[in-house]
Recover the amino acids of this structure.
């Protein structure tokens, strides 16, 4: 079956996690692909919204596989009072299931992991459980949510938000992100685990433990794209995330609106991702 405007080029691969969770992995595999990328979306964003990025990267010979978060898009689950999960399910069940699907669909290719915002963080966290999962890491609009890694005035009110969002998720049964303008319909456990990092500065969660010793062992090449008007992932938050990967060789670039041809904020780049895709693949301009 196919998805998106490029009929026959975007394939939807059925995936099932070990606990029975079913979803689809959107794949764009160009002829003579040289490497594969498993891309993890931002919080609350369905995989299909990264189809422009997949097409742009495929033009550079990258086989792109767009992961679907549990509870969104093609996932058969939706978060609620009777349906909850956290980082444990995402990191130990769903992402490995997508990794296996990538290995089957594109065997023998160099493996890249990456993602946008929370997706990039969890790609890095996956290295904490399997530091050989990816040979390279591509990040866009990504940084640790730790409140001390943000500039003023955000640093003054972020701790309150980090406590309020998990509380709201518990009260409502799931976070009503669409109504409040942050994320989507998010599981209570995901918000608990995310807020744990945001308040403590450490990547750890029930069921997976402390991820940082494993992250420190990873030897990966990192390319990280920052956006000039992205207050959700400022430069300091990216640097804090990269500090969890001391064995990584990291290259960062900051993109402004003039370079992108689009607003340089947390989400607008997704609609015009060609410049970012080119930079990931070793070409294309970025601002200093």
């Amino acid at each position: 079956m196919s998805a998106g405007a490029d009929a026959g080029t975007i394939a939807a691969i059925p995936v099932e996690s070990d606990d029975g969770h079913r979803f689809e992995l959107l794949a764009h595999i160009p002829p003579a692909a040289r490497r594969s990328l498993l891309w993890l979306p931002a919080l609350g964003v369905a995989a299909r919204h990264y189809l422009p990025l997949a097409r742009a990267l495929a033009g550079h010979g990258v086989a792109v596989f767009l992961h679907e978060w549990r509870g969104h898009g093609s996932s058969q689950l939706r978060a609620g009072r009777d349906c909850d999960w956290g980082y444990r399910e995402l990191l130990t069940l769903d992402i490995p299931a997508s990794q296996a699907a990538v290995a089957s669909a594109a065997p023998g290719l160099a493996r890249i992991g990456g993602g946008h915002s929370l997706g990039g963080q969890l790609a890095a966290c996956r290295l904490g459980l399997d530091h050989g999962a990816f040979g390279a890491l591509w990040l866009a609009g990504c940084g640790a949510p730790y409140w001390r890694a943000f500039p003023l005035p955000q640093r003054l009110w972020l701790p309150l938000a980090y406590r309020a969002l998990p509380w709201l998720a518990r009260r409502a049964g799931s976070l009503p992100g669409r109504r409040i303008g942050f994320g989507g319909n998010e599981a209570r456990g995901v918000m608990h685990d995310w807020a744990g990092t945001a308040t403590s500065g450490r990547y750890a969660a029930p069921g997976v433990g402390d991820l940082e010793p494993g992250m420190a062992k990873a030897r990966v090449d990192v390319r990280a794209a920052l956006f000039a008007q992205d207050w959700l992932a400022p430069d300091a938050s990216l640097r804090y995330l990269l500090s969890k990967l001391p064995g990584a060789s990291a290259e960062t670039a900051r993109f402004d609106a003039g370079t992108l041809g689009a607003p340089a904020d947390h989400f607008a780049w997704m609609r015009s991702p060609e410049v970012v895709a080119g930079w990931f693949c070793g070409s294309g301009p970025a601002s200093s």
Summary: Confidence is low (pLDDT under 50) at residues 1-8. Residues 87-105 form the longest helix (19 residues).
